[in-house]
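Lecture notes, unit on protein representations.

Consider one protein chain, 670 amino acids long.
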Amino acid sequence: MKLKNLFGLLLIWAVVFLRAVPGEAQEWSMIEKGFKLVPDSVQLAVYWYWISDNLSEEGVVHDLQAMHEVGINRAYIGFIGVDGVPVGNVKFLSEEWWKVLHVALKKAGELGIQIGIFNSPGWSQSGGPWVKPEEAMRNLVSMEMEISGPGRKVLDLPKLGKDMQDVRVIAYPAFRKEEYQKSWVLDKKENASLAADLKLEQRSMIRSISFEINTPVKTHGTLYVKEQNSYKLLKTFEIDRSNPALHVGFEPYAPIVLSLPETEASEYHISLDKEGEGQITIILSERPMVERFAEKSLSKMFQEPLPMWGEYMWSTQPESTSDIWTLNSQNVLDITACLNGEGKLVWDVPEGKWIISRIAMKPTGVTNSPATLEATGLEVDKMSRKHIYKHLDAFIGEILKRIPPDDRNTFNIIVEDSYETGSQNWTDEFIELFTKRYGYSPLPYLPVMKGVVVDNKDCSDRFLWDLRRFVADCVAYDYVGGLRDWAHRHGLTTWLENYGHWGFPAEFLQYGGQSDEISGEFWSEGSLGDIENRAASSCGHIYGKRKIWAESCTSGGPVFSRYPQIMKQRVDRFFTEGINATLLHLYIHQAYEDKEPGLAAWFGNEFNRKNTWFYQMDVFADYLKRCNFMLQQGRYVADVAYFIGEDVPKMTGVCDPPLPKGYSFDYINA
């Protein structure tokens, strides 16, 4: 660099520096003052659970006074039902319940405590007894029958089940050849590996293997083919149907289907690891099928709480050289107009054999949880703003109507906890909305959702990719965005934990980006927090959210066993991962003055007035608020952004290659 250029650069820098000094000095003065005396604007929040109908007007007043005394100035009311906790007498939405809520909101206003209310009973996710089956989360089902043409046929279609709604009736040519398949039933014992020879009657071309089970089981396996008196590895796989709960799949024991490279042989060998037990039916077939179609259509999801980055990504399937069992999308006919109101189909059938498929949607059956019996109902459709708005009108809207504005002037937040409600893969007007988004109709590809190869395996997989992406986009923009827009119209804001355990169907960054505020989570022990807080801070940084909360110091028993000193280490750790606002877990509402040590549950540390150290926690509260204040100053700068890709569902990112120590990163999406 020439000397005069260097001199000019230094001169410019000096002028900029001198001009910036007065403003910087003022800013540093404010930071120093805030460090010494944390401003009232810095909030320390707490989940305030009203458990199992144990409520009282006196109790909520004393709870709020106690919070105020130790420095808690934001509280989120959750109406929770807990097994094992004695049930109280103040039933959900009863007149006494409304009185207690009114008193609580009015007292919070007098004390300057900001109030959030969970958007439904329970902590996950958005539902209640007011949600009708046709407004609930729904999935696609189909019922098939085969007929022959030509000629006009008057047919009784398969009956719809309870709460099912017709979507379409389609017809497509039957396969030109009956598939050859053979099945075996194996009894798998726990802690015992299993091996079996699978022999066909004759040498045949095999293209897929399926596993059917009806009890929880998880195991790993390998499949070999016998060639010239030796065995060749054909496929390694995992069978995982260990969790039949609806929130990890509305088809609990969906078949496990694997594509095989075209293999002509008569003898195979299968081996299963020691883990897992149950009866497993194995089917070898010459018909190609869409691999893992149940997982790819969100019928069955990751079976444990924390799906890592690659759990919903699959390898390319081997294509088939034969089109005998492949459906041409151009040959799929929409014959819905031939269906009359009584379930009869009147259709002029073309020549040949045809499959008629009556396609319907039905509720997944997932309910808001954990809530008391009176407060429990179906989870609302996460892909429909219309239904989401109606849900909010029925609950939060009623609170706004029944309690005068002057008596709820600090209630201004709608709360959404972590997502634990599972998937859906259909909604009203799905076909029209999907077609508008992607430029093609999903109708000819709907047989893919039962494993039928349409056009080819690549096209079938691409349709299912679009399906999952469409669901994730709707969950972000229509569900979280719908909650936010409804809240804004009523003078409220939204607070969201931007990830989900147990069947999260969305993309964590996009999902959180639609909420006003976001939060991570960490427990006092264990691994919860290891991915959630980076998920929250990355979302906050790329979507411009200054405060990044964490549900802090959560626990799972034993009760009354922890105190601030042993909580501080985990608190500090997650401050280093971008958390700068603290919500304590948990203040359980204490309804009874004459009962000690008060109401407790198996989860959460006891941040409540019945705990012996509660009134000494003001020092801990000051520490948390001081850290929050300091960490909220300035702007976060990351060294690296890790792109999370566009596959969904997505609960976290991946750090590949890993960063050296001392460098920081954010996840970033498309």
